[in-house]
Protein 1
Amino acid sequence: MTRPDIRSGALIALEGIDGSGKSTQARRLCSALEERGLPTVFLHEPGNSEYGDRIRQLFERGRSVSPEEEMRLFLEDRRIDVRDNILPALAAGSVVVMDRYYFSSMAYQGALGLDPERIREENEEFAPRPDLTVILDVLPDTGVTRIRARRDVPNSFERVDYLVQVREMFLTFCSDDVVRVDATGDEDAVQREIQEQVEKLLSARGMLPPR
Ligand code: TYD
């Protein structure tokens, strides 16, 4: 199968363990890009498909399916997101900001014993590779403390011992286009670092005039 072509827009994924602040930072990034006049689309995974609904049941009721089945649910949910949302937005020239993408499958289902490189291959058969992936890195204890402060009870994906393994997985993915940002510090400082990375990308692609 040929890889999807994403040259007209730009695809940016924010990743990291639960409680790393991805959702807040992704929203702030979108606002900043919009303020600079760039058409921006914000997406969160798992999405709103029937598979996403099933996944949310697993968060609440416990992980009653095999790692393979869990991985399949995320994959099918993503297939719909790619077809209905991501590819059309990229074709229209938008900057797409993902709050989680397939690196989450590689890390979370990888930490359950599946081979992360196989997960990557299966995803990249249909899902465009991000131009930039930012891994927001916090210690699992910090992540779980933030979740408790936000809504009391961590769900079945949010145990510290599991998140230790998920974080280790995430950090092994760092490369030229997968960068780690320390997300322990204050929200504004983290946002500035993310924006610096994004500006580098968008300027290099001629999508952003210099300030
Ligand atoms: P959710 O609360 O929707 O997102 P967030 O943590 O960003 O607020 O929960 C997403 C959970 O799903 C999170 O624990 C990570 C997990 N997940 C996977 O295990 N595999 C995946 O491919 C994705 C996208 C998420």
Protein 2
Amino acid sequence: MGFFITLEGPEGSGKSTQAKMLVSYLEEKGYQCVLTREPGGTKIGETIREILLKHSPGPSIVTELFLYAAARRQHVDEIIRPALEADKIVICDRFADATVAYQGYGRDLDLEWIRQVNYLATDGLTPELTLLLDINPQAGMERALGGREPDRMEQEAISFHHRVREGYLELAQVESERIKIIKADRGKEEVHKDIRQYVDEALQR
Ligand code: TMP
């Protein structure tokens, strides 16, 4: 069986850059990696992503939950599980924790519903290691946008993004073995160094 790593965090936390840097690091060490993202990673998932982030009018809150979940299940079935079965390291930019943080804490949906929907969506698959890149939402949003137009989620009030961050931090407290908090308001090399340490440690276990 391979190894499943996810990156999470508020908008502008630098997950995508860090995910790429991590893949380069691991490939240099000789590991075979699959880099992917949610929502997305498959043709169906990328089509759902367009609806989730661009469609106007946007989906209702529960439909939004189902769409993230639908993209996730397709991703697990088509990409993630087969890659793990082929002994690869899967590095995924967001996964089920994002649904807890955004739809649970951000949208205030019932956390028990989220747990059940996530169970179906992930087929019970849990990452071995989750790197939570933590950043103040205000700073993150400035970094994320840098002049471009915000997508549908980014357009939410800053209070929404504060709740998302709190959600992530609470998750990390409850699951401190799996979820590692990394301060993301630093240079990318510094952040990468911390990530490397956690990943090396986890791969040795
Ligand atoms: P990204 O900006 O990291 O590519 O993620 C896309 C957006 O989707 C981001 O605003 C977070 C949001 N999102 C959710 O609300 N729930 C989820 O389950 C996932 C995976 C992402």
